[in-house]
């Protein structure tokens, strides 16, 4: 992203804002999370939309194709491994931390061509009634959530404190005999051996260096502060987005209750 296109932000005014890092769940909580759907909320929205499509298909006398499944939530490794216990078990693989149980199940296990064709027709026919997802990462969509996410990340990565904290982590790795990847010097995963035990040893040292230098808390705080500044600059629109999310979830839960899923 071109630096000239980024908004001017005074991060110092938000120095009291901090990210919440939870090693037990390998999650990083940031201010923008309040405006996006959690995995559990995403499951509620998805299930409600599936019931709208199912109603359309029932009205057409066509059986819903196979649609069901849980949602896996993996460790947040946006900046590489940072939980030593997970690194010791999985190396650089991204482990599943928890599973959100599926709500919708078509109760069918076959997907004939006629059923699939009608499914897509009903998906299109009900799109105006369906509930939009609340995510900052939707391909091709230039939304406020996307812009704030992209701008805050770009501003963070250009911040001198970001570079300083990253350099300290790299220095810690170097002292342990670990070098950064030559093909991707800006990556958050260093070079590591091809064998699994060598990978795990490197991953554990990597995570220990992240703890020793506090780099994860430092860069996450930087991201949180830029996010807060950009949220404040767009507060009226963000308040509307928060209201929209509340209304959307209420609508989704009403749809689920109407289809016998009152506990969702």
Short structural summary:
The chain has 264 residues and is mainly alpha-helical.
With strands numbered from the N-terminus, the spatial order across the biggest sheet is 1-2
Distance between the termini: 40 Å
Structural class of the helix and strand makeup? mainly alpha
Q: Tally of extended strands?
A: 4
Q: What oligomeric arrangement do these chains adopt?
A: single chain
Low-confidence stretches: none
| Element-level helix/strand string | EEHEHEHHHHHH
DSSP summary: helix tally:
8
Coarse shape: globular
Mean pLDDT: 93
Give a structural overview.
The chain is globular, with a radius of gyration of 22 Å. The model has no long low-confidence stretch (mean pLDDT 93). A two-stranded antiparallel ribbon has the order 1-2. The chain is mainly alpha-helical and 264 residues long. β1 (20-22) and β2 form a beta hairpin. Helices cover 50% and strands 6% of the residues. It has 8 helices and 4 strands, in the order ββαβαβαααααα.
């Amino acid at each position: 992203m071109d630096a000239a296109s980024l908004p001017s932000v005074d991060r110092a005014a938000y120095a009291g804002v901090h990210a919440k890092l939870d090693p037990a769940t390998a999650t990083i909580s940031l201010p923008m999370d309040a405006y996006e759907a959690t995995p559990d909320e995403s499951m509620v929205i998805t299930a409600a939309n599936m019931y709208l499509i199912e109603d359309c298909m029932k009205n057409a006398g066509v059986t819903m194709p196979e649609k069901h499944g849980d949602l896996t939530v993996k460790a947040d490794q946006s900046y590489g491994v940072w939980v030593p216990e997970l690194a010791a078990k999985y190396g650089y693989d991204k482990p599943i931390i928890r599973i959100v149980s599926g709500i919708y199940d078509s109760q069918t296990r076959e997907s004939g061509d006629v059923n699939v064709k009608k499914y897509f027709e009903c998906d299109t026919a009900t799109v105006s009634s369906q509930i939009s997802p609340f995510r900052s990462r939707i391909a091709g969509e230039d939304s406020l959530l996307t812009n704030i996410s992209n701008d805050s990340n770009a501003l963070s990565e250009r911040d001198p404190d970001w570079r300083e904290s990253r350099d300290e982590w790299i220095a810690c790795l170097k002292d342990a005999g670990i070098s950064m990847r030559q093909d991707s010097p800006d990556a958050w995963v260093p070079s590591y051996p091809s064998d699994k035990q060598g990978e795990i040893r490197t991953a554990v040292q990597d995570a220990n260096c992240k703890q020793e230098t506090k780099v994860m808390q430092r860069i996450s705080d930087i991201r949180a502060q830029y996010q807060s500044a950009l949220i404040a600059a767009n507060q009226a629109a963000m308040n509307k987005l928060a209201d929209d999310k509340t209304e959307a979830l209420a609508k989704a839960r009403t749809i689920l209750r109407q289809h016998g899923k009152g506990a969702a």
